[in-house]
Amino acid sequence: MDVTEVDVTETSITSRWLQRDQTALAGVLPRITDIVAVEGEGAWLTDAAGRRYLDFSCGIGVTNIGHCHPEVVAAVQRQAAALMHTSVVAHHPPSIEVAERLGRLAPFFDEPQVFLCNSGAEAVDGSIKLARRTTGRPGILCFRGGFHGRTIGGTSLTTAKPVYRERYEPLLPSVHVAPYAYPLRFGGDVAATNGALAALDELLTVQAPPANLAAMVVEPVLGEGGYVVPPVAWLRGLRERCDEHGILLVFDEVQCGMGRTGKPFAAETFGVRPDVVLFAKGVASGLPLGGIIAERRLMDQWPTGAHGSTFGGNPVACAAAIATIEVMERDGLFDRAAALGRRMVERLRAATAGNPSVLEVRGVGLMVGIELIDGEAAHEMQQACLARDLIVLTAGPQSNVLRLIPPLTLTDEEADTGVTILCEALPSQP
């Protein structure tokens, strides 16, 4: 069989699946590629025609220990054969064990307690209810460029792209948006810290009285907003203002948590203590699980029955999370993420130096962004990578940031392969 015949066969198999997809599934759900995936292993996806792709997307930051890790698969199989669901009818050991393990991953909390749900968006909505219930205040302050989910509550806090809000207003009332400390746009860390905090103080003075605010909800590293790593001084400034005014500081770590920044949570990476941490995505290797972590002194103010979930903390998802955390801790994947991320950033910065199409290479741990001059350049680079069997995503309001989210289990060889492809796919210099 020659190359042309192989290409025709691959196209035919993929086309048939895509036609059935278009008939059966609602078109409102977007897909980033036309890959029809049938198998995942480690850092690789295989499509219906047998073509393999190096996956630097991790299902948008979900498969942090790779696709179908054998220990997670085994844990899921064991739990599915024993108990699959209880809802609120009964307690079950996997939920207790995973809550204990998550609490230990948050050493910045005294007596941590966990509420389990199904997704990041549910965790965000739950945190709004927790903040309003415990403070008696209605207002929520969020930050420009943030992404907090697709529910009405999450959408109300999301400003990463206009498409997320278009034709859905009115959204939740009493939501205020302040600038995010974006060093590239402000002109450096100091200017970003000072400018963003000054704008926040003005907002608190003229529009959002602190006495009305229940919480500030912030991504410690912007995800959909462009993989922006803010200055630590800015995060400390948020903590100081929350302390001064009795406002809860909520870290939405749905994308940047679970080892992505080189520690279990970015709060520890940056050394800034929130009042509440939200998690999901990478916690259960692809099974639906999310939640809220806070100190017992706060959770005790949330009365029994004031919030709940039918499927949250499902036994099978909890078993997957326990196995995922065990692998991360045993295999030293937090340190691995930090070291490998530094290596990738250094090589990419060297390769892009002087390229006028590349504005910045930045990152923390295995959360790396390449900001390009515009969305067209980013799209072309993304497609060039895909043609070379590397999956990467874009981010940012103009979709001009290439975001790299490989698994923490990535080998040195796989990392080098991915970076080589990225360098080959860079926009050519005039």
Characterization of the model:
The structure is a single chain. The chain is an alpha/beta fold and 430 residues long. 42% of the residues lie in helices and 16% in strands. It contains 15 helices and 15 strands. The chain has helices at 3-24, 58-61, 70-82, 93-104, 120-135, 152-156, 183-186, 189-206, 232-245, 266-270, 296-299, 315-330, 333-352, 375-387, 412-425; strands at residues 37-41, 44-47, 52-55, 112-117, 139-143, 175-178, 213-218, 248-252, 276-279, 290-295, 358-363, 368-372, 390-391, 393-395, 401-404. A 7-stranded mixed sheet has the order 4-10-9-8-7-5-6, with helices on both faces. Strands 1-2-3-13 form a 4-stranded mixed sheet. The chain has a 4-stranded antiparallel sheet with strand order 11-12-15-14, with helices on one face. A hairpin with a 4-residue loop joins strand 2 and strand 3 (52-55). It is globular. The chain starts with a helix and ends in a 5-residue tail after the last helix.
Summarize the structure.
This protein is 42% helix and 16% strand. The protein has 430 residues and is an alpha/beta fold. It is globular and about 60 Å long.
